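User: For my dataset I need records formatted as: sequence, then structure tokens, nothing else. Please produce one.
Assistant:
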Amino acid sequence: MAFDPSYSAPRQAGVFFERRELERLLWLYGRMVAAGEWRDYGMDSLKDCCVFSVFRRSAEAPLYRIEKHPALARKQGAWAIVGEGGHVLKRGHELEQVLRFFDKGRFSVVE
């Protein structure tokens, strides 16, 4: 069977961050790196959600996951912050509201 250059595998339409959301997440990441709290990040786009994970060290499990679930937008809110143990720490309809969780003094990183 010969290679057909016109063939492209079907792509699954996944969920991803909008430009302003991604800018806000990267701004927060930069602020936390400057404070010495975070060292690495990763992003994942899945069929039903997208995830922005932050790490203290890149070889470890994520310290926090900021998740966008559009299917939950009318119910619990599309945005959630999930902690290291998998517990939902904050949930809401607006990204700014959820990211207030990281305001100075409202949380502490445990070694």
